[in-house]
Design brief:
The complex is a heterodimer of chains A (about 200) and B (about 200).
Chain A (H helix, E strand, L loop, with lengths): L2 H6 L15 H7 L3 H24 L9 H23 L1 H7 L10 H11 L4 H31 L1 E2 L2 E2 L14 H22 L1
Antiparallel strand pairs in A: 1-2
Helix pairs in contact in A: 3-4, 3-6, 3-7, 4-5, 4-6, 6-7
Chain B lengths: L1 H48 L12 E5 L2 E10 L2 E12 L4 E9 L5 E6 L11 H4 L1 H5 L26 H32 L1
Antiparallel strand pairs in B: 1-2, 2-3, 3-4, 4-5
Classes of the chains: A mainly alpha (about 200), B alpha+beta (about 200).
Chain lengths: ~200, ~200
Amino acid sequence: MSIVKEFTKGLWKEIPPFRLVLGLCPTLAVTKSMENGIGMGLATTFVLVFSNILVSVLRNIIPSKVRIACYIVVIATFVVIVELLMQAYTYPLYQRLGIFIPLIVVNCIVLGRAEAFAGKNTVFASAADGLGIGIGFTISLSVLGAVRELLGNGTILNINVMGPSYKPFAFVVSAPGAFVCLGLLLCLMNIVGDLKK
Amino acid sequence: MRDIVRMVVVLSLICGVSGGLLAGVRIGTKERIEYQELAYVKGPAIRDVLQGCSNNPIQDRFKIKHGDTEISFFPGKFDGKLNVVAFETTGKGFGGEIGIMMAVSLVDDKVVAIDITTHKETPGVGSRAKDDPAFKGSFKGLSVDDPFKIKSEGGKIDAVSGATISSKGIAAGVAEGAKLYKELKPYILKKIKART
């Protein structure tokens, strides 16, 4: 498969968390607003790209018996780096995402890509794969965040678009609302997918 | 056997490099993170007690050792001179510690303003002391030598009715801060002199 294909598969065919149903915890927890979704998505993309690159570079050195331990160390390193950087440069966002930033360590997408892809492929393919999956994840979280913010708060990126008479639909920003929105979006994606065939 | 040695060496090497990298990033961002934390957590209170100052008190902060702890001071520039200093002190309220940001004038040793940074007081009861401008304003103009006590204890401060314990706690915290200020004033002046 070409590099371009490795990148674009993450945007539709294997887009997380809809197609690759992994990483649901941050998806459901932080997408109360579009801004949170974008922030979480980009932080995960950063970790994905760099951990994929490093795991791919080291794939012939790491003994297979301790590979999971090595992957976790690599991933945890980049998570702490992204956490420190966010604390230093985007403090309000860091405060809002809270515990979910350090929890990227246990995000199945990151370990999943390291194990399923980066451990077996070349550095460039792995970087493209990480970037594609990461951007796909960012898109999913942004869309889900936008839908929930629009319905639950009447705003998008903190800009009021529904007018002052709009009565917020508070259920959508609660945890059960996250499941319902995720389900409806998945349903919509399946319909579009079927039409394409 | 060779397998085990290889596993140990590789894993140790990865962990070592990771540790070094993280230490580097930590050192590189330390200063900036400290600034951000101050700006977002304590910033509003600092700006409130130093209202109208012409400098950035968080940027100009300095630390003075007091016993085992280091205390951060935030100098405020008024009329072209760093003549007010803000710092945080704590008092014991009903629900736990109350963090108080207080600003003291270096010219006449009088309290300029106080504000609450953190508290665990009962919402709607003790927390009213935090939001009552008249209560906070009653500290204004008191000298650091005054006894910081509420009226029922023979002082000059009107306690917020229904929030006596919180009011007492805040007054005691300010008294603590005043004591600290008197003790450290020579050092504060020295630090400020070095700035100008």
